[in-house]
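To the structural biology subgroup,

Please find below the input and predicted structure for Ribulose-phosphate 3-epimerase, which we are adding to the shared reference set this quarter. The sequence is reproduced verbatim from the submission form. If anyone notices a discrepancy with their own records, reply to this email rather than editing the shared folder directly, so we keep one authoritative version.
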Amino acid sequence: MAVQINPSILSADFSRLAEEAKAVEGADWLHVDVMDNHFVPNLTLGVPIVESLAKATDTPLDCHLMIEDPDRWAPQYVEAGAGSVTFHVEAAAAPVRLAREIRAKGARASMALKPATPIEPYEDLLPELDMLLVMTVEPGFGGQAFLDIMLPKIRRTRELISKHGLQLWLQVDGGVSASTIEQCAEAGADVFVAGSAVYGADDPAAAVRLLRDQAAAVTASAPWACAH
Ligand SMILES: O=C(CO)[C@@H](O)[C@H](O)COP(=O)(O)O
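Predicted structure (tokenized):
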């Protein structure tokens, strides 16, 4: 599979999470935004809800931890049933140890960069990861405008992945929609988180398919595209 679409449940109706998860079955992963009101100025959900969601859907969970002290909490999200756990490098005390622990527990390890965090200092960490997330908005809220000044960072990250011959996925998150997904794909992203563009659509499952088709059309000719 060359591209993946991960609907973000931040834009879903939290009183009907199980139904909202089922509404996007067919998506590659369900993106779960965990916020603690410290690392970001918003509060969402935690381990018990992830545990319930994992039982309510067959779609694997991609948990994005926008929290302080991910070194302590990330392993608990793996135990709760997440198939992929993303921690922020700005918050992690020991990112290499944490990535190894997530992998050892059986999940994919992923690291996120806020918009002002460059990728270059972390080049040597890339082999420790299964996915790198380049935020295309300031983390904390859905429905924000896509930051197109992140496109060069996506491009540079793709170049580093190719330079090292790695298979890790490159995810973008924030303001991803039918208007912006092609630019992200052209820059080298292959995993796309979309909240309002999916859950704001009349037919969320159809929105996922359309976004996937748009991105796939771009990456089909990309030299870095490969089977995951
Ligand atoms: O992590 C975040 C926001 O911090 C995202 O996952 C948003 O939930 C994406 O929502 P849209 O920008 O697609 O509406």
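Summary notes: The chain has one domain: 4-219. The chain has a mean pLDDT of 96.

Regards,
Lab coordination
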